Every structure is written in C-alpha cells, then in structure tokens.
Here is the input.
Amino acid sequence: MSGAPAPVATAVSENIQAGLPKNMVPDPGWFDGDRSKFEDWWRGIRLFLKSNRVIETDDRITAILARLRGGVAGIYAQRKLDELDEELGTQDWDDFVKELKTTFSDKTKVADAEWKIETFKQGKKNTADFIIEFEALAMKADTDERHAIFLLKKNV
Here is the structure.
C-alpha cells in the first residue's frame, strides 16, 4: 500500500485548510452487500462525496470501493480493484454507477414499486404529498413519462 493519503481524506483536509465549513454530511460507513440497505447507503455516499468535493472519477470510485466490505460487497470491491489495476485509462463514472446499481439494487423494491404505482390513490392525502410519493414510486418503478401521466390522471 502506498503512503499517499486517501482521496476523501485529502479532500476533507484541503477543505479545512481552505477555511471551508466543516462537512455537515456524515460518512455513510461500510456497505456489506445487504441489498435492502443499498438505496439509503448509495444516497449517503453520493451526498458525502459531493459535500467533500470529491470530483475526480478515480477518486470517487476509490472512495466507494473502500467502503465495500465483507461478503458479496467485499468480493465485488476486490474484483473491481483488480480490474482497475489492469486498466491504463480512467474508468467511466456512468458505467461504474450502472454496474454498481445493477449488482446491489434491491430488485424486489422495483417490483413492489411497479405494483404499488398501479394502485396508488390520492385519497385524503395533501396534493403535494401525493405528487412527491407518486414521483418517487415512478422513479423506483422506472415508469416512462407517458405511462406515469396516465396513472396520475387515473389515480388522483
């Protein structure tokens, strides 16, 4: 292991030296491969990287792989690290994100969202709350815009 500081640690210390406010976003911690926790962990790591101004693709990927531990997540991180060591160029961020999401997303949440959006009714909910929940379901269910509009009209 080299003596070079970790990318996120460097970014944090550079922020402190630059007089920027202390980071308000906590480190999301380790991800162990539990698919039911991936969505929350993924949101947390994205916020953490953004708030620490970790911009470079290689630094972002390194920070994420460093937080994958144990079980399937650890095996994935090791395999990905081996791949990156063999490559001479930079990994594409969008490709990495797509692979990570495909590997660790909870497929049952998508199926549940698909079923729920078809039967989701406003009832006595506040309109703004209904729209927020509906949009979240549509995103999780990967519903195309045309079908989402149809369901929205049908279920209001």
User: Anything to note?
Assistant: Helices lie at 7-17, 35-51, 57-65, 71-86, 93-104, 107-119, 127-141, 145-155. The two ends are 58 Å apart (CA to CA).
